[in-house]
TrEMBL record:
PROSITE patterns: OMPR_PHOB, RESPONSE_REGULATORY. GO terms for molecular function: phosphorelay response regulator activity; transcription cis-regulatory region binding. This is DNA-binding response regulator, OmpR family, contains REC and winged-helix (WHTH) domain. Residues 125-225 bind DNA. One of its GO terms (cellular component) is protein-DNA complex. Residues 125-225 form the OmpR/PhoB-type domain.
Length: 226
């Protein structure tokens, strides 16, 4: 059963989502604060974290950054408002997706399924590819730069695999949302932009002057050409 770590300070929301996710087949560990969530991660290994942004003490943004700094665990954030600043800040902190409150259990479950599919998705190509200083092993799902492994979150890896599969081809944000986040998924283009920023920070010498993931203004993104 997929295991969910739910970090939510509102007792009614926490209990409601815990019951709904448990009914849908998940094992749920629910805590009230960011500190409790980070401590619990030392003893349990969830498949996904559902994280409220507005937490007492250590807030959700900092929790997200700490989780992302230590690994590639998928993170879905809960935001009380569909606020541009909160959403973008959460995505830039490392979240893979978000759900606006009041969170409907069926919507959250769909986002969890999607992010878990992205985490476990298999790739059929078997030959490691060289792109400049990057080596991409599509079978092993390993990316190295200068021979050293690059730690990528699942969505970052899927984005890199999608872009690098056709170097020089321009993909729109909607195409990337559909192929990387979920087939037919009509989501928020900010998911793409924030993920691109995080990916660039890990694979580019200068993220402000990217070589690998290039912006084609008015159209979308392309990989290279190098």
């Amino acid at each position: 059963m997929p295991r969910v770590l739910l970090i939510e300070d509102d007792e009614a929301v926490r209990e409601g989502l815990s019951l709904a996710l448990t009914y849908q087949g998940h094992t749920v560990d629910a805590v009230r604060t960011g500190e409790e969530g980070l401590e619990l991660l030392g003893s349990v290994t969830p498949d996904v974290v559902v994280l409220d942004l507005m937490l007492p003490g250590v807030d959700g943004f900092e929790v997200c950054r700490r989780i992302r700094a230590s690994g590639d665990l998928p993170i879905i954030m809960l935001t009380a408002r569909n606020d541009d600043i909160d959403v973008v800040a959460g995505l830039e902190a490392g979240a893979d997706d978000y759900v606006a409150k009041p969170a409907q259990a069926r919507v959250l479950e769909a986002r969890i399924r999607a992010v878990l599919r992205r985490s476990s998705a298999s790739v059929t190509e078997v030959v490691a590819e060289r792109h400049g200083d990057l080596t991409i092993d599509r079978e092993g799902l390993v990316v190295t730069r200068f021979g050293k492994p690059v730690s990528l979150a699942p969505t970052e890896l899927r984005l890199l695999l999608e872009l690098s599969s056709s170097p020089g081809r321009v993909l729109s944000r909607q195409q990337l949302l559909s192929s990387v986040w979920d087939q037919g998924y009509l989501g928020d283009s900010r998911l793409v932009d924030a993920c691109v920023q995080r990916l660039r920070s890990k694979i580019e010498d200068d993220p402000a002057a990217p070589v690998y993931v290039q912006t084609v203004r008015g159209f979308g993104y392309r990989f290279g050409p190098l």
